[in-house]
């Protein structure tokens, strides 16, 4: 296999516009063994660019390069690692407008979302983990006095727990945010002294190559960051089963996460997995219904519902069932669906034709299961949208716990509503039982005018996070799921712990 370097003039992308993208392996831009495939704009169905299809051998070569680079990179000072991450943030900010346009074209996100929630968050995460590289890695442990015995003379034993880098980390990223998601994996992994092999989602890998180009321009040494893409399952499998890989960080579906977990288990590889979600939003009769509808309604618009943290499953007390439905219907009815480039567009397309068909099939399934379609219901959302992968925001009422549309992750702009009865403690019991009747447990939500009740109910929910009267996230708080929603926690300093192993160092005083 021959490797050729691409020029890296300041401000340039890894490949000029219109030139097929190449892989990044050991600091070189490498021609892919498998040729290229088209990356499609979900809004226009036009071609955004040509992404490289790596071979299994090239993926393993990338992992071997990361292994070779690990020894040197892991011994760099925290200040050196912080400087590379800070410079990366500077470079991403420098080319912010171009990155925003690419993010919008690849994902179908509105311009505001591509700018504020994709590229801007990537910049912020590199800044955050530049600081994170400087956080203390040692935790002192009180000394222990040991009497003389079989293990030696009497002594006072000191100890310290030290976080060390794991080694080579494979980062498999999600399609719904090809900027923030990779940044949230790569930046803390590098801050801790790991090296990475990044396998982007096949739908929108070009953004990840832009991010990698900024890292190389910022001074990341060859082999520290490698990017290998491909539409074939073989590429992801090779990035997991390479013997040079010590850890896999994955964001995606539970089904694929389970397959990755099996491979990692055989090799005793560390795992960090953010998997599916079916967020329950419990709404009690004393809740601020306008606030609840506003929070739940973001499912219709934010990433067009393609987000695992969305409150897609509404569990509402019977007394406010119809009033909440009215508010949700009104919210959905005011959303403009259309070209994500347009200033007034709120809901863009889904990522692909296949995913649109999947979401539409769930809406039809809901009808057959007995759900009442309040808003939407499949089909194209309006005139002029014959091109693009658009789905109308859909509200399904009169749902029951056993329906598939209630139990399975749809990952689109579809909200299902389930009523519950009772009063006082019985109402809390009923709501919690419905919320926890799920294979998932990523983020749930509770809306109530009684703060004590809201926190009491939150403590009973089997979810990695609970929003009380908000859908907002504190990005320093741990993020991850219970049950089939994942393994491990990241965000804030928790990510630094996720990408490190703990070593005990003991000495005699």
Principal-axes shape call? globular
Mean pLDDT: 94
Helix content: 25-40%
Strand content: 15-25%
CATH class of the largest domain: Alpha Beta
Instruction: Work out the helix count.
Output: 15
So what's the oligomer here?
single chain
- For the record, the count of structural domains works out to 2
Alpha-beta classification: alpha/beta
Q: Please, could you describe this protein's structure?
A:
The chain is an alpha/beta fold. It folds into 2 domains: 29-275 and 487-506, Aldehyde Dehydrogenase, Chain A, domain 1 (3-Layer(aba) Sandwich), CATH 3.40.605; 280-475, Aldehyde Dehydrogenase, Chain A, domain 2 (3-Layer(aba) Sandwich), CATH 3.40.309. It is 38% helix and 21% strand. The chain is built from 15 helices and 22 strands. The protein has helices at residues 56-74, 78-94, 96-107, 111-132, 180-191, 206-217, 233-241, 254-267, 289-301, 321-333, 353-369, 404-407, 424-436, 451-460, 492-498; strands at 23-25, 28-30, 36-40, 47-52, 138-146, 155-165, 168-172, 195-199, 225-227, 247-251, 270-274, 280-283, 313-317, 372-375, 394-397, 414-420, 440-441, 443-447, 465-468, 482-483, 486-487, 500-508. The strands form 6 sheets. The chain has a 7-stranded mixed sheet with strand order 14-15-16-13-12-18-19, with helices on both faces. Strands 9-8-7-10-11-21 form a 6-stranded mixed sheet, with helices on both faces. Strands 5-6-22 form a 3-stranded antiparallel sheet. Helix 1 runs parallel beside helix 7 (233-241). It is globular, with a radius of gyration of 24 Å. The N and C termini lie far apart (56 Å).
């Amino acid at each position: 296999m021959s490797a050729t370097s691409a020029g890296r003039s300041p401000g340039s992308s890894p490949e000029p516009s219109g030139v097929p993208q190449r892989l990044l392996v050991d600091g070189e831009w490498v021609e892919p063994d498998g040729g290229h495939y088209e990356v499609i704009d979900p809004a226009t169905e036009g071609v955004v660019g040509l992404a490289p299809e790596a071979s299994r051998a090239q993926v393993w070569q990338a992992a071997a390069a990361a292994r070779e680079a690990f020894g040197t990179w892991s011994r760099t000072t925290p200040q050196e690692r912080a400087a590379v991450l800070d410079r990366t943030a500077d470079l991403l900010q420098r080319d912010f407008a171009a990155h925003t346009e690419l993010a919008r074209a690849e994902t179908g996100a509105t311009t505001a979302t591509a700018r504020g929630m994709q590229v801007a968050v990537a910049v912020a995460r590199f800044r955050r983990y530049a600081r994170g590289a400087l956080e203390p890695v040692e935790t002192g442990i009180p000394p222990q006095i040991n009497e003389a015995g079989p293990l030696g003379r009497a002594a006072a034993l000191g100890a310290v727990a030290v976080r060390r880098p794991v080694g080579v980390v494979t980062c498999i990223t999600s399609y719904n945010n090809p900027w923030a998601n990779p940044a949230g994996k790569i930046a803390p992994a590098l801050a801790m002294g790991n090296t990475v092999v990044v396998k982007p989602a096949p739908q929108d890998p070009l953004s990840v190559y832009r991010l990698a180009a900024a890292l190389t321009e910022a001074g990341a040494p060859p082999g520290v960051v490698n990017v290998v893409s491909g539409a074939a399952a073989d590429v992801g499998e090779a990035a997991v089963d390479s013997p040079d890989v010590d850890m896999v960080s994955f964001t995606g579906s539970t089904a694929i996460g389970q397959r990755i977990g099996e491979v990692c288990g055989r090799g005793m590889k560390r795992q960090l997995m953010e998997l599916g979600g079916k967020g329950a939003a419990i709404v009690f009769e004393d809740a601020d219904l306008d606030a609840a509808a506003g929070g739940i309604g973001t499912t219709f618009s934010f990433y067009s519902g393609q987000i695992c943290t969305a409150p897609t499953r509404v569990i509402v007390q019977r007394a406010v069932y119809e009033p909440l439905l009215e508010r949700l219907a009104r919210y959905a009815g005011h959303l403009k669906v259309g070209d994500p480039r347009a200033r007034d567009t709120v809901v863009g397309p889904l990522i692909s034709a296949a995913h649109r068909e999947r979401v539409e099939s769930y809406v039809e399934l809901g009808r057959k299961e007995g759900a009442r379609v309040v808003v939407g219901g499949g089909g194209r959302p309006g005139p002029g949208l014959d091109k693009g992968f658009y789905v109308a925001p859909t509200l399904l009422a009169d749902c029951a716990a056993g329906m598939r549309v209630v139990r399975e992750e749809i990952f689109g702009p579809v909200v299902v509503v389930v009523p519950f009865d009772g009063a006082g403690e019985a109402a809390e019991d009923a709501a919690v039982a419905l919320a926890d009747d799920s294979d998932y447990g990523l983020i749930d939500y509770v809306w109530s005018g009684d703060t004590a009740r809201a926190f009491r109910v939150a403590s009973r929910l089997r979810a990695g996070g609970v929003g009380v009267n908000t859908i907002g996230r504190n990005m320093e708080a741990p993020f991850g799921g219970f049950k089939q929603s994942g393994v491990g926690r990241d965000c804030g300093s928790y990510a630094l712990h996720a990408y490190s192993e703990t070593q005990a160092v003991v000495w005699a005083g």
